[in-house]
Amino acid sequence: MMLNDQWTIMNNSSSELDSKRPSKHKRCCNFLLWSLVVLVLIASVVTATVTILYLNQYPLPFISRGGLSSPVIATNPKESGALVTVSRVADGEPISIFLDPNCPDFSEHFLRWEALQSSLLRTLTNHNADDWQERGLVQKLSEELKVLSGHAHNLRLEYDSLKRGHGVLDQRLDGLQSEQSRIVQVLSDSHSGVLKLAAGLSDSLISLQRETESLQRLKSELSRDNTHAAVRPRDCSDVLAAGVSQDGVYSVFPPHDPDGFMVYCDMTTDGGGWTVIQRREDGSVNFFKGWDAYRDGFGTTTGEHWLGLHRIYSLTRLGGVELRIDMADFDNATAFAHYSDFSVGRDSVNPEEDGYPLSVDGYSGTAGDALLKHSGMRFTTKDRDQDQSENNCAAYYQGAWWYRNCHTSNLNGQYLRGGHASYADGVEWSSWTGWQYSLRFTEMKIRPRPKPEPQQS
Ligand SMILES: [Ca+2]
């Protein structure tokens, strides 16, 4: 107000000077104008200085601050309980702020906080205005809450059900675990069993391999034996087949008798190949012998001899053997008897214990049959009575034969040189010379029965 007044005075003075000196007043006007400019500048500087001091709240003696609405800060007001209360004179509403006394001075932020409070108040007002909408919302929320409660109940029920199911699942899981343990145990047992079985199989394979090797060795040995048999005749027919056609003594090796023995071979009679098993020709050998002699054989192969029951068994045990008996009397008459089948002890497990029974069949010849009645009889010697007589036929008729009760032939009897007074105790073939003629020559011989030739159409 005071500055405006001065400014008004200046303007008034200038107007008066202009009116008093209208002619020579131009220099004076310039002076006044410059003075006025200086005054305005001074006034502007003073005004600016005062304003700055005022704004910096410097206490000015000529300005009272009671009219300005600056905030009033009260510390620790008792009635509000706040540490600091900020109040604006214009509003009159205090803003209570709880401040830590040790906090730094936040007075610069109070204006910002006031603005925040105003914003909050507006928000509260808007909130009251929207209250009716909220109530509707609350009802809606309540209804939805009921629905949610129903869902929650259902979920609860499902949870309980699931919990029970979980318990059942736990039980089944326990069962499965125990089953798994059992299966693992069974697999372990099976594994050990398989291992044992494999070990057993391995042992069996090793054993089998050894057996195979043994069999191969045996096979090669048998092969060697067969090769050897080609050069080792089983009997005189093999000797003849090997190209030897001269009568004489040869070694033969019947099956199952690898040691072999010496025999006389008749290579001339009826095609040859005959193995001689008995010969009487001069009475040089005593034929009234016991069991062991007749079992093992005796005499001279080239002369009178008995080949032996066991050797005859060896030569005939496989069957298919024929027998020929050539005979001669002291008048140089000859005859023969032929039997298409002949064997000794063929069906016996133990031929000696069984008595080397005779099997003979199929007579043909010129001497008549004097042997078929002896078929099936066991061999009797003077020391082993196996005949069907109440006496010992061998002892009674001075020989050794397959006696029944007692005989129709007695080729191992006494060499009585033709007719004799005694009864049937010589070298008899009753069908040719009766029971009181002892033959000069007898020769029993065997060979494999020739296979029938294929018939020509
Ligand atoms: Ca008897």
Automatic annotation (TrEMBL):
Concerning InterPro entries, the annotation shows: Fibrinogen-like_C (IPR036056), Fibrinogen_a/b/g_C_1 (IPR014716), Fibrinogen_a/b/g_C_dom (IPR002181), Fibrinogen_C-term_domain (IPR050373), Fibrinogen_CS (IPR020837)
Q: Does the keyword Aminoacyl-tRNA synthetase apply?
A: no
Q: What region holds the Fibrinogen C-terminal domain?
A: 227-450
Does the entry feature the keyword Glycoprotein, yes or no? yes
An example molecular function term from Gene Ontology annotations: metal ion binding
Pfam families membership: Fibrinogen_C (PF00147)
Membrane-spanning residues? 31-55
Q: How does it sit in the membrane?
A: Single-pass type II membrane protein
Please state where this protein is localized.
Membrane
Q: Which UniProt keywords apply?
A: Calcium, Chitin-binding, Disulfide bond, Glycoprotein, Membrane, Metal-binding, Signal-anchor, Transmembrane, Transmembrane helix
Q: Where is it found, in Gene Ontology cellular component terms? A: extracellular space; membrane
**What is the protein's quaternary organization?**
Homotetramer; disulfide-linked.
Mind telling me which NCBIfam families this protein's record contains? GGGWT_bact
> Can you say what this protein is called?
Fibrinogen C domain-containing protein 1-like
Organism classification: Eukaryota, Metazoa, Chordata, Craniata, Vertebrata
